[in-house]
Amino acid sequence: MSQKSLAEITAPTRHFAVQLSATRRGARLARLLTERQLDEWGEPYEAAAQVVAELASNAVLHGRVRGRDFRLRLTLRPDRTLRIEVTDARGDRVPRVPAPVEQDAEGGRGLRIVEAYANRWGVVEGPAHGKTVWAELLMKHGPLVHEASGRPTVSGSVRR
Questions:
Q1: How many CB atoms lie within 10 A of CB 5?
Q2: 27: CATH
Q3: Which residues are CB-contacts of 106 (< 8 A; sequence separation ≥ 6)?
Q4: Exposure string over 131-157, b if 16+ CB within 10 A, otherwise e
Q5: Is 18 a member of any domain?
Q6: Which among 17, 35, 70, 143 counts the fewest CB atoms within 10 Å?
């Protein structure tokens, strides 16, 4: 069992959740709110904002049901794992990483971007025939490190 620091034991779990319109504007707002919230928590936000942008965009493009919103939820655990959840109204459209796309293709890269930044991600059935796509990132000051490869995933800096 690994030893936890006093900061990890006493640090609170932080939560942020918001419901947004399933529009391009709502997807853009999800990214901006993520940046603002993580900055307020004193965490680097570049990688998380990119993941949120992709998941929110997918919720708007592929998970939209007329008259229904999508929900963004951020949970920062004491061990500095950030869980990002985007819940949309289309449980019948489960995301899958597509086969490699042509270099000049206009789409098909979103989940590959999520895969590159997140330590892990997945999909769970949501309420009212919806689904939640989630991703977890280990937050570290300085470059974020991808668990599987051990390589930095971004050149991110910390803004305080």
A1: 10
A2: 3.30.565.10
A3: none
A4: bbbbbbbbbeeebbbbeeeeeebbebe
A5: yes
A6: 17
pTM for this prediction: 0.76
152 in a structural domain = no
Q: Pairing between strand 81-88 and 120-125?
A: unpaired
| Matching residue, tokens 């098909």 | 108
Give the total number of structural domains in the chain: 1
| Cα–Cα distances in angstroms (integers) from residue 63 to residues 6, 83, 92, in the given order | 41, 20, 9
Res 142: pLDDT: 46
Query: Would residue 146 count as lying in a domain?
Result: no
Distance CA 140, CA 135 (A): 16
Q: Is residue 151 part of a domain?
A: no
Q: Mean pLDDT, 10 residues at a time, over the chain (160 residues)?
A: 57 94 96 98 96 95 84 96 93 63 58 91 85 93 46 33
